[in-house]
Amino acid sequence: MGYRNIYFGFMLYSIQILYICLIRYFHMLIYTYIVIEKLMGLGMMGWWRKRAFFGPLME
Fold first, then answer.
1. In the chain, what are the domain boundaries?
2. From the DSSP assignment, how many helices (H) and strands (E) are in the chain?
């Protein structure tokens, strides 16, 4: 019983670490995407305008 409790606690701990790493990874992706758009001079509104304009043509 003690072994199972230790194993379960370790599993929860590792899942928590994986979850934090995933959140940081996605946050980094979104942040770099916004920075690249700012460097390109588009901005989020420009991207949405472009998507609204080219959306029907792409699909």
1. 2-58
2. 2, 0
